[in-house]
């Protein structure tokens, strides 16, 4: 009888130990607000918005300790609109992230699935559009550099290094998954960052091949390549690179970011992050070029109150014209708790008169002229 009780007790101990070596976490964020826009297709508008700063999502994140500093990891992350409950990212179940892989404390991680590119991983955290201090509506025009994460990379294999005294690097390759079309609708990306004594530096590169819906690439577009259904540009090739730095001193952080996107075989501009922006077409397979210059700063007035702002100047060569944008952004947020905050933010965008496109703050419908103003009061909850 004593032996039976001892075996049962030991079995319970080992089961508890085995259970402690693996974990699955449910997490998420909900962002809802009321937005006033002075001009959407020629009319002012009051609307309930979702994800004006951070896209609403929930996800599952798990890890299993395999011993020797090695573990199996996975993430499944869904994006949705809190205002109507619909799925985002092209109605995918796990459209924000979906990957599985192995991670080593010493050598880094290798993961496979639908994942972020290196511009998002390394450069975006130095901007305001890639953080909680600005997000969706602070994006550069059309989110042309993907720093607001308008699209992810399907069929991707990704390496992320360990942290070597503040230095991190990584690379990603997204397969076309197309027979006899290895290079058609594929993607690759690489980046690195370094942090030291309050300074943060980062640089990254992203290339997409045949990620558009030109007639010659329709089959690749529909076959489930590296970027399908949520891409920003319909083009034969997109090359994007960027670099930035910021410095934190006490409660303040200030930074500068530069990014550039070159397009060849451009046939149109897609819907972007929110799916609300009207598509722009008629470029006839031309080339295009965007340059973005962002200066940003944020300051913690108290542990509960923050203020952040940025200015972005964008110039482009687009269908034989040279539009340029000026956008001013400002946000203040008040933390009701560690997980819940309220925010108020505003944006003003102006594109030069007689440009080929109108003003178009990311995540909202385009203006009917060259200027647009938006103000949002919102609530965010994390779990």
UniProtKB/TrEMBL annotation:
Q: Name one GO cellular component term.
A: cell outer membrane
Q: Which Pfam families match?
A: Porin_4
Lineage, top-rank taxon, reads Bacteria
Query: Where, subcellularly, is it found?
Result: Cell outer membrane
Q: Which residues form the Porin domain?
A: 8-351
Q: Which GO terms describe its molecular function?
A: porin activity
Q: How does it sit in the membrane?
A: Multi-pass membrane protein
Q: What is its main location?
A: membrane
Keyword field: Cell outer membrane, Ion transport, Membrane, Porin, Signal, Transmembrane, Transmembrane beta strand, Transport
Q: How does it assemble?
A: Homotrimer.
In Swiss-Prot or TrEMBL terms, this protein is called Outer membrane porin, OmpC family
